[in-house]
Amino acid sequence: MAEPFTVRITVRGYETDAQGHLNGNVYLQYAEHARWSLLQAAGLKQNDLLAKGVGPVNLETTIRYHRELVAGDDVDVTCTFVWGEGKSFRVEQTFRTVDGDLVAEVFNVGGLLDLKERRLVRNPAEYFRALALHPQLLGAQAS
C-alpha cells in the first residue's frame, strides 16, 4: 500500500488557545488544507469542480485528540480518500509529530454537491477521476 499524501505544517502562535495548545478549530483548518493540497497534487483545482457545476461538501467530521501541539511544533497531516458506493465518501487523516507520534485523527464524511440541483451527485469518485490529472493520488483510478 502506498504512503498517504502528507503535508507538513508549523503551528503558529496565534493559532493557540489560552492554555498554549493548538486551538481545536485549527485542526479542522489543517485537515481542510491537506485535503485541498491533495486535490491540487492530483491536478484538480477548485475552479475545475466549479466549472463542472459541483463542489465538495462536509457532511460530518470527527476529531480524536491524542496529544497536544504547541506553537513552533511541526505536524505532518496525512490525507486518504476512501471511496464507497453511493453519494458520499470518507477522508481519513492523521496528525503526527515529525518523530511519528500520533497527535490527532480526523475522520470526514463528504460528498460532491450539484450546485444547480443542490443535491449530492451519485458516485463522486467518477467526477474526481474524470477531472484529475493524477486520479491515482485520490485512490479514484478506474478498477
UniProtKB/TrEMBL annotation:
Give the organism's phylogenetic lineage: Bacteria, Bacillati, Actinomycetota, Actinomycetes, Kitasatosporales
Q: What is this protein called?
A: Acyl-CoA thioesterase
Q: For this UniProt entry, which residues form the secretion signal?
A: none
The organism sits in which domain of life? Bacteria
Q: Which InterPro entries match?
A: 4-hydroxybenzoyl-CoA_TE, HotDog_dom_sf
Q: Which SUPFAM superfamilies match?
A: Thioesterase/thiol ester dehydrase-isomerase (SSF54637)
